[in-house]
Amino acid sequence: MWSLIQAAGWPIWPLIVASIIALALIFERLWSLRTSVVAPPGMVDRVLAEYRSGGATPELLAKTAARGPLGRILAAGLANVKAPRPVMKEAIEEVGRVVTHDLDRFLTTLGTIAAMAPLLGLLGTVIGMIEIFGSQGTAGSNPIQLAHGISIALYNTAMGIIVAVPALIFYRHFRAKVDAFVVEMEQQAIKLVDLVHGERT
To answer: Looking at residue 38, what is its pLDDT?
Structure first.
């Protein structure tokens, strides 16, 4: 492994750092964007049952908010349960914007790495080409410098693609997953509002 890094030259180091960051972000988002964490099935029914049995007590609001992003949205609705329907929906929308921002956390960084990695690989390719041209002299070419230049160009190009492809795949996957969660949470919040105000049975 170390021999490959030495053959690739110094341009490989930014790509190695980018790959470590991308891997950490991918694992963090895989753990944080689980359905059981963001929007557990049946949460609205459980919260509504608890509300009907004891009302919108501070304990219920705290317990609901601690259940994750969907819980925070439902807690905002329950906190304004005695207000008119538009006020309740507005409170839910305000918290929903914050929750959506939290779900999008680190995705911009992951997308930036996906876009930046091929450019870093291209930078290594250019530096390798400079090494190749520098190996040509009046007395002929320096085979060691020529081989080193070729190694820099090829290894950095390959590393740029290796980092960019998984980062882009997971960026698009997480973006779609967040969009799906936002739609699901919106539907669950509307269901809570309708049930509380007697517009749905």
So the answer is: 93
